[in-house]
Amino acid sequence: MTPAARVQAAITILDQILSGDPAEAALLRWSRSSRFAGSGDRAAIRDLVFDSLRRRRSRAALGGALTGRGLILGMCLQEGLDPVQIFTGEGHAPAKLAGGELGKGRQPTEAEALDLPDWVQPLWAGSLGANAKPVARAMSARAPVWLRANALRATPAQAIASLAQDGIVAQSFTGLPTALVVIEGARKVSNARAYRDGLVELQDLSPQLACAMLPTAQKVLDYCAGGGGKSLAIAARGNVDVTAHDANPARMNDLPSRADRAGAKVRIAKSGQIRGTFDLVVTDVPCSGSGTWRRTPDAKWRLDRDRLRDLVEIQAGILDDAGRYVAPNGYLAYMTCSLIDEENGQQVAAFAGRSEFELHSQRVFTPLDASDGFFVAILRRR
Ligand SMILES: C[S@@+](CC[C@H](N)C(=O)[O-])C[C@H]1O[C@@H](n2cnc3c(N)ncnc32)[C@H](O)[C@@H]1O
Predict the structure, then answer these.
(1) Mean pLDDT (whole number) for 244-256
(2) Cross-sheet strand order for the sheet of 266-269
(3) How far is the CA of 4 from the centre of ligand 1 (A)?
(4) Tell me: the pLDDT tens digits for 21-63?
(5) Residues 146-202, CATH architecture
(6) Is the minimum distance from the CB of 185 to ligand 1 under 6 angstroms?
(7) Per-residue pLDDT tens digits for 53-108
(8) Is 348 touching ligand 1 by the criterion CB < 6 Å?
(9) Residues of CATH 3.40.50.150 domain(s) within the chain?
């Protein structure tokens, strides 16, 4: 495909997303109906779509319309590209710019330039204080790919060497050597031997740092285990008995095969099958995902106040339920991939106020720390 044809494909997909389709579904549908597109085309179109969603507000202002064409026109103006060279109307390129189309845009207001919904902005500012604007700006950039070198299978150096054999360049993070940032070849990771043989797992830096903060424990319950990212990270410490649970057991379907690949032992407990108490219970709760909006930018525009309120209620219920499984003097860890304090510090403070747990430590990670946004609090049972 020519670069201009890729742009036209992105415009079509963006229009479907703007009319309500989830981004992944719209991309998949386009791929299936466009067998002529190669993997390079698909990757480039995906990047165009996701970049435009990350910067939806500012690009719509610049491009003069919240449409696929408006967003791509906004992209041209934001990145100093000449739109006349792209909107040529030739072959499969976008149709020529209509008279006046170029003049409809304007400079984004200060609020639009942050690329956050209006209703989120006060929550964002209240949660992040002086970092609110830099974090919002960082959210409009593409996220790096992070891997966790799995200590049950390899040292970080061995994992890096194996990745290199498949053309992937990765580098250890100074503060946590098992966290590897992919410098080159990110799209090759899922086919690499290091990944297939369990030497590395895909996991952002912030949950890795959060798991590293967890107290040492022999018996751990991962109460909201989902695909098992936290279970596997905890199991990789060795000498630990990990039980994974999720209210929706189907979410754990892949966990046994992931654990086999990683050489980890994880026990699966369905609801009603959790026995006894644990030294550490981890609750990686459902949340707004506002810390990962770089990776799932359409979620940024779909979240609303009602959904956030529901999530805060669900999180509070999970803390109350999960707390029952913590042994006396044991720990309860609460995690979200959100930056909104209602889901984080306020949630934990309210729980400490109504329970027999006291706050031991907490930390917010943001893209300013090179990671996704993430929150972890560790509470101790009195
Ligand atoms: C953020 S995801 C977990 C991600 C997972 N820990 C990982 O690292 O891959 C939240 C999970 O909480 C589960 N969940 C929702 N409500 C729950 C509840 N009341 N009790 C336990 N799990 C719940 C969801 O099914 C979902 O899998």
Answers:
(1) 96
(2) 266-269, 241-245, 219-222, 278-284, 326-336, 374-381, 357-365
(3) 41
(4) 999 999 999 999 998 999 899 999 999 999 999 999 999 999 9
(5) 2-Layer Sandwich (3.30)
(6) no
(7) 999 999 999 999 999 999 999 999 999 999 999 999 999 999 999 888 988 999 99
(8) no
(9) 213-381
Sorted by sequence, the CB contacts under 8 Å of residue 231 that are 6+ apart come out as 222, 225, 242, 244, 255, 259, 264, 266
Mutate to test the pocket of ligand 1, among 206, 223, 224 (most ligand atoms within 8 A of CB): 224
Residue nearest to atom 6 of ligand 1 (CA): 225
Active-site annotation holder among 76, 224, 287, 337: 337
Q: Alpha-carbon distance 159 to 147, whole Å?
A: 10
User: Is the C-beta atom of 22 inside 6 A of ligand 1?
Assistant: no
Angle between helix 39-54 and helix 23-32 axes, rounded to 10 deg: 150
Rounded average pLDDT over 332-352? 98
Superfamily the domain 213-381 falls into: Vaccinia Virus protein VP39 (3.40.50.150)
| CB of 59 closer than 6 angstroms to any ligand 1 atom | no
Nearest CA to ligand 1 atom 13: 224
In the chain, CATH 3.30.70.1170 covers 146-202
pLDDT by residue (tens digit) across 173-209?
Answer: 999 999 999 999 999 999 999 999 999 999 999 999 9
Angle at 49 between CA 43 and CA 55, to 5 degrees: 135
Distance CA 269, CA 223 (A): 9
What is the predicted ipTM?
0.99
Write down the H helix ranges in 139-223: 156-165, 193-196, 205-212
Predicted pLDDT at 282: 98
The answer to whether 116 touches 136, Cβ cutoff 8 Å, is yes
pLDDT-based confidence at residue 302 (cuts at 50, 70, 90): very high
Active site residue 76: no
The predicted pLDDT at position 311 comes to 98
Q: How far is CA 264 from its chain centroid?
A: 24
Assess whether the C-beta atom of 318 lies below 6 angstroms from ligand 1.
Answer: yes
> What is the CA(283)–ligand 1 centre distance, in A?
8
Q: Is 246 annotated as a binding residue?
A: yes
User: Which residue do the tokens 């525009």 mark?
Assistant: 301
Give the per-residue pLDDT at 217. 97
